[in-house]
Amino acid sequence: MKIEIRKVTPEDAQVIALLAQVTFREAFGHIWDAEVLKKYFLETFNTAKIRSSISKPNNVFWIAFADELPVGYAKLKIVSPYQKLTDKAPAQLQKIYVMNDFIGNKIGEQLQEVLFREVKNQNIKTLWLAVWDGNDKAIRFYEKHGFHKETKYHYDFESMSFDYEVMIKNF
Questions:
Q1: Which of 41, 126, 130, 137 could pair covalently with 164 via S-S, beta carbons 3.0-4.6 A apart?
Q2: 160-170: strand order across its sheet
Q3: Per-residue pLDDT reduced to its tens digit, 22-68
């Protein structure tokens, strides 16, 4: 399998929006109410919003291809302060998603590596992320790659309610 990763441009917005919806549903569809999930997608992963996010200089997206098919993506927010961190200018790893059928091919690790290179090139000292506390597989993945649990936060969307681990990695 040939894996390619490249930075995203605004012209990729439709593909990223679709990947976002598919991979999020694969990862969390079993815990979300179906109607609430549809509303979440309309609000969060619509093409216009994704295009706008891609266009912001503070965001960097990558897309992963397996044999020329788009199968995953990652998003870095270059400056993303979080009040519970001592570093006042950390970056945030906001998204790494790979389609279920392609997990196990090290695509997530490759996406993470290009994101780590960007963090180092930008001389960022702290990278943080939030991961649902029920996602043990993701927590183990991040711990394996040098992140540690720092604090927690809570997120509500309509009738849904989630607790997240905030994890950090220092560079």
A1: 130
A2: 3-7, 59-66, 69-77, 91-98, 126-132, 160-170, 148-157
A3: 999 999 999 999 999 999 999 999 999 999 999 999 999 999 999 99
Residue pointed to by tokens 């290179």: 117
**What is the C-alpha separation between 22 and 16, in angstroms, rounded?**
10
Tokens standing for residue 89: 């200018």
- How many CA atoms does the CB half-sphere of 30 hold within 13 Å? 4
Mean of all residue pLDDT scores within the chain: 96
pTM of the model: 0.94
3-state secondary structure (DSSP) of residue 57: coil
The two beta strands, 69-77 and 59-66, are antiparallel
Domains and CATH numbers, the chain: 3-170 (3.40.630.30)
Across the range 1-9, mean pLDDT stands at 97
